[in-house]
Task: structure prediction
Amino acid sequence: MKRFHVHAHVQDLQASIAFYAKLFGAAPTRVEADYAKWMLDDPRINFAISTRGGKPGVDHLGIQTDNAEELAELRERARAAELATADEGLTSCCYARSEKHWIEDPQGIAWEHFHTLADIPVFGQGASEAACCPAREAKPAGACC
Result:
């Protein structure tokens, strides 16, 4: 069985630990002075944050759900933790039609929660790239969400 891994550099470890514990609904499995890690089974991910390394952040991260109920659960968890959500609802983006919403952590790293409904033949089927990822103010040219 595989587990997705992400490592993000952060400025304020304690603020980030508080955010991700709320987002995941779980405390980290390991915490060091400059590092924290979650080994989650749902979704299966090895997610690590640290104050070591380069410029804080990653482009964005995401969790894709298998159904609308799981997406609604993620949305409610974010709202219950008083995290601001940017709801896109049904949208066409990145060669898919999906329902999604975005949240941001204390550093401004965008998280996309989405449920894919269908593949589409073009990038946004009439939607502009800016409309694709409204929580992302600046992206590298040609970058997709």
